[in-house]
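TL;DR need structure tokens for one chain.
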Amino acid sequence: MIVTVKQNAREEEIQSLILWLESFGLQVRTWIGEKYTLIGLIGDTSSLDGRLIESMPVVEKITRIQEPYKNATRRLHPEDTVVDVSGVKIGGGHFAMIAGPCSVESREQIIDIAKQVKASGATILRGGAFKPRSSPYSFQGMGADGIELLLEAKKETGLPIVSEIMDISQLPLFEDVDMLQIGARNMQNFTLLKEVGKLDKPVLLKRGLSATYEEWLMAAEYIMSEGNHQVVLCERGIRTFETKTRNTLDITAIPMMHELTHLPVIIDPSHAAGMSRMVHPLSLAATGAGADGLIIEVHNNPAKALCDGPQALTPDAFDEVTRDVTALRNALRR
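>> reply
TL;DR here they are.
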């Protein structure tokens, strides 16, 4: 339920209303806009008499929300959320270019790539230390050593870092990582979602392989219900009947999610198609559709990459993508 407060309401009247609503055992969230103050009620509001609330002099109107994702819904938070990743803003007109290798392989590799993608315009460095692989015989990542190398690359370049966490036992290793990534396979790992929700740290939440929009937003709700509202959604392609590409990029997710939620939405064109030659056109398509950023895999020698080489761009190819994305955003006046 949303309670819209009248424009001329005094602060003491608003606080008195909030205290009264909290007496029903509800979570109360307040948003102050240019014209109205909104009070969001989270919990079982069935016992509340809507007519009684509307009769109060301080109340303009009430609106009942049907969506189960009370924190993530745009109806309760009409203004875009801007997530700050150690000084890099995402959402609300701020566009992020996240780039780096699928997995950290060596000190020389990650620092070299970090320097090159930064020179091309990347604002956040990505790199996997723990890798969820379909085969138990595939490279699983360097683990804790990979995190240390990412932190070295951060020190060398000044780029904030984002890396995927797979289990709550790994949380101590990620204390100095600027943004935690929840991968597609862990989108509904509810124990992990609740634990990262207790942190004061941005979270990049990837859409599950076959997840609906509501399931994706409910995963975000798990994080936000614990107090962490710094969530960035990432569309990375979904599983369909098509076999020519690794996944099918759902471009519709960008405008639709912007309607449904106030959270930023970015696109992963690398995982979407699984082919490096598709990354450039998909990046432009996502930019044109209104994405708040891109996360792109870049490797200095894709042919010898230990993970996902076929979908990784070379640094030169990434430079071309960033130039064209910037030109398109300028043309669209974003």
